[in-house]
């Protein structure tokens, strides 16, 4: 895959956008921009879990279906899902029908509620894992890092599921904990500006 690909406006974007035109709006408006909204953070960690073994193209195409199936990823609502809901979701052709991943979302919703009680918010917890700038590597050169391994280990210790180091790293890339746009990508500077303006959540 080339380092960059020409976007609809003729300007360079990260090479992975070449896979489908659907990637351009996601890349330009979401990927890498810092997020402190708990519901969006929960949605993303769940969708990254669903992506395990699949492509992001598959998940992105089904994202609205996932949102409808999981109450817009309101973890307070999903935490109350029952075995009956699992069976219902296994019949939903609009999502990835994988029992383990569906059950993991429900489990993680319960763990998310605990995290909010313990940490104040999911944002306060996740942003503790923002790497030091000096620890950054060349953009898109790795799929895990020391920090993503630490995040994965801590989440698993807290009872979260489908949160391996690669999933954690993809989450960090997408939610803006790092700026992993390639150097020549036109969106990299926009993400840099957003990260500089972003007010990090306070920790307990």
3D architecture notes:
The protein has 204 residues and is an all-alpha fold. It has a single domain, classed as Hypothetical protein, domain 2 (Endonuclease III, domain 1), CATH 1.10.340. Helix content is 51%, strand content 3%. It has eleven helices and two strands, in the order ββααααααααααα. A two-stranded antiparallel sheet has the order 1-2. The chain starts with a strand and ends in a 7-residue tail after the last helix. The model has no long low-confidence stretch (mean pLDDT 95).
Which stretches of 5+ consecutive residues score pLDDT under 50? none
Give the % helix: 40-55%
What name goes with the CATH superfamily?
Answer: Hypothetical protein, domain 2
The biggest sheet amounts to:
2 strands, antiparallel
Q: What is the CATH top level name?
A: Mainly Alpha
Q: What's the N-to-C terminus distance?
A: 43 Å
Strands of the widest sheet, in order across it, are 1-2
The total of beta strands comes to 2
Task: State the CATH architecture.
Answer: Orthogonal Bundle
| Global geometry | globular
The percent range for strand residues is under 5%
Query: Helix and strand succession?
Result: EEHHHHHHHHHHH
Separate helix tally: 11
CA-atom Rg in angstroms: 17 Å
Average pLDDT level: 95
CATH overall fold name: Endonuclease III, domain 1
Query: Which secondary-structure class do the elements indicate?
Result: mainly alpha
Total separate domains: 1
InterPro entries: Adenine_glyco (IPR005019), DNA-3mA_glycosylase (IPR052891), DNA_glycosylase (IPR011257)
Pfam family, one: Adenine_glyco
Protein name: DNA-3-methyladenine glycosylase I
């Amino acid at each position: 895959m080339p380092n960059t690909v020409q976007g609809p406006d003729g300007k360079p974007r990260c090479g992975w956008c070449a896979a489908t035109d659907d990637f351009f709006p996601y890349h330009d408006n979401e990927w890498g921009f810092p997020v402190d909204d708990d519901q969006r953070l929960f949605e993303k960690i769940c969708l990254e879990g669903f992506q395990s073994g699949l492509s992001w193209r598959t998940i992105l195409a089904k994202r609205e279906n996932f949102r409808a199936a999981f109450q817009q990823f309101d973890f307070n609502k999903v935490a109350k899902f029952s075995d009956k809901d699992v069976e219902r979701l296994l019949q939903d052709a609009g999502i990835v029908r994988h029992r383990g991943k569906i059950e993991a979302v429900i489990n993680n919703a319960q763990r998310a509620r605990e995290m909010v009680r313990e940490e104040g918010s999911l944002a306060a917890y996740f942003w503790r894992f923002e790497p030091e700038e000096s620890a950054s590597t060349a953009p898109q050169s790795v799929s895990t890092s020391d920090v993503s391994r630490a995040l994965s280990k801590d989440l698993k210790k807290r009872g979260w599921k489908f949160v391996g180091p690669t999933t954690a790293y993809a989450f960090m890339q997408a939610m803006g904990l790092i700026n992993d746009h390639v150097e020549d990508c036109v969106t990299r500077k926009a993400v840099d500006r957003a990260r500089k303006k972003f007010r990090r959540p306070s920790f307990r």
